[in-house]
Structure formats: structure tokens, C-alpha cells
Amino acid sequence: xxxxxxxxxxxxxxxxxxxxxxxxxxxxxxxxxxxxxxxxxxxxxxxxxxxxxxxxxxxxxxxxxxxxxxxxxxxxxxxxxxxxxxxxxxxxxxxxxxxxxxxxxxxxxxxxxxxxxxxxxxxxxxxxxxxxxxxxxxxxxxxxxxxxxxxxxxxxxxxxxxxxxxxxxxxxxxxxxxxxxxxxxxxxxxxxxxxxxxxxxxxxxxxxxxxxxxxxxxxxxxxxxxxxxxxxxxxxxxxxxxxxxxxxxxxxxxxxxxxxxxxxxxxxxxxxxxxxxxxxxxxxxxxxxxxxxxxxxxxxxxxxxxxxxxxxxxxxxxxxxxxxxxxxxxxxxxxxxxxxxxxxxxxxxxxxxxxxxxxxxxxxxxxxxxxxxxxxxxxxxxxxxxxxxxxxxxxxxxxxxx
Length: 402
Known about the structure:
single chain; alpha/beta; Aspartate Aminotransferase, domain 2; seven-stranded mixed β-sheet; 13 strands
């Protein structure tokens, strides 16, 4: 191997000459839909929204879809639709975006953090069960990086303890568990269409469910508390205005036309990376599960095995990988309970300063993320990732902490 780029050597990939795929990907579909919607003058919560709700729900094998302003709003809407409220406990993973837990606070319920699995970054059903109390009303598992949680176990817990399973599917567009789409497996599930997501309109969200009552209640919360097929100025719930616009739906309908193809390409490239990287001792790959019949990668995650790197820390490793032209980051730097929001005494009656989830804290020190955009490149580009990782591992003794 040659000298590492971070030490003055030539990078594996010169990104000025050979860039990675940009995001978002847009085409004639979005342009056509937007122009038609713009010229129609019908920009408000109409046929485009209904069309997208129907098509995205079908894509994920759900019966009902209710759009809203963003994924955070979708989580709050899901909790309210399930009747979660004051004093109820909701089990959540601490390895996630803050909205997974903050949405629980917004409905005056109490987030209870359970640990994750090291080899999936997903909520551990064993620890989740251990955290169930008489106050527990729901579990919100996150399909981290698009890898579905063990839904068989969580649905069994739901039946045993009479709980709602609300899927945070904001990483898992296109993912399937035993042939059925995520978001349609529990009581309900939610997705985000924020700008970094695998399907995007800049912002936006949706709730999916196979239960008509849940969908109708969510619709009411998103539409100022109005009832189904009732007079316009009659309001039945303390709802909010969370409606998606026709312009957002027009963009998402265009995005949806290529989502399956992109999902399959990401999955193919990630599978190739798994095959090529499995013998590098300094990294540990995420597990596979035969029940995951399709995986919509939001990022490619692997673990930096600290004890193998002879004193080199992960931050320096990430710097070296980026210097070789491979986009990578550390992901979530801290468990959610260590965020300032939760480090206030007495929040929800729990002192989160005393919470400790060992595996989550380990993942926050070891996880390395490669963004989903890189997985849209060609197989030869995956070889650049393999070459760079191999190079950094082989030349690790020259990699001095910065």
C-alpha cells in the first residue's frame, strides 16, 4: 500500500475528478408534476396529496396513508392516534434522531430508554421487555439505517402486554420484513421526506397503518381536528394544521417513480461491500436476517473495533477515510438521553442523568456511517471504498491521532 492521503499520499479517489452521486436526484417527473400543479392554481391539500398517500401506502403494503408536514409531526400524530398521553410510558431507543423521544414528550408522555443491539443498531427486544411497566402503552422501535427490527419479537410483546407498536420507519423506505413493508407491520408507522432522506420533497412526512380508525384519527389531528365526512367548521379533536401541500406531493410522486430502482441498487452495492469488507479485522459489519426480504439503506454502517487499531481513535480513522475520498462520518455522537434536553433534573419525573445504556454508548463511540448517496454509485465505486478501507487498515501504524 502507498502512503495514506492524510499523511501526504495520493488519495484512492480524487473527488474533484470523480465525484459521488449528488442528492437529491430529480428528473422530468418532478418538473412535469410541479409545472402542472403550479399552473393549475390548486396548491392546497387536494388530489396530488391523495394520490401520493395512496401510492406510497401501496408501495409499503399498507392500507392507509396520512401525510403531514414532516417526520417529527408524523411521530406526534401517531402517538396521539394511539391514545398516548399524560403519564403514559413509551419505550424508545437512545440511538436515533431526537424526534423519536421528543415526540413522546410533546404528547406529555414519558420516554423510557431501552438499549440497542450492537450488530444492528436496533432496539433490543430483550431490554425493551425488561423496561415494560404498568404505565407502558407503546414501544417505538426504529429501523436504524433501513434494517428492520425484529418485528416478530416486538409484535409478540405487543400481544402479550397489550401495547402499541409505532414504527419509526424514517430510515426504511422500501424495507420489507417477511415480504411486507416497514411502517405497515405494527399499529402504525411513520416516514420522513426531509431533504437528506431516500425520497424527499425538502420536508414532509406520512403515517401508514392497516387500521382505519388509527388513520382517521391521525387525519383529524393533522387537519385541525375535523371529523371524517363532517361539516368543515366542526372540530372534534384538539388537532393542528399539519397538512402537506400539493406542491410537495407533486415532487414526491416524481421521487416515488424511481424509489424501487434506487432501493435495489443501494441494496446490491451494500451486499457487495459486505462481501468485500468482511475480512478486515479492524471493522465489524452489521448482521443480516433472512426475514429482511428487502432493505432500504439510509446509510451503510459498520463498527470501528477500537482495540484492533493500536491506539488510533475513531475520529482520526474517519479523517483518514475522508482524505482517501470516501464520504464518512461518526453518525449520532451521543445517546439521546445525554442531550441537553434530557439532562435537566426532574424531566418527566425521571432523572435521565442516571440512565445508562451500555451498548448504545459503545455504538456512539464505534459507529461509522457512509451515506446512502454513495450506494447509488457503480460497483467500481464500491471498489474504491474497499480499497480505501483496506489501505487505512494496512497503514494504520502510520496513522497518528491528530
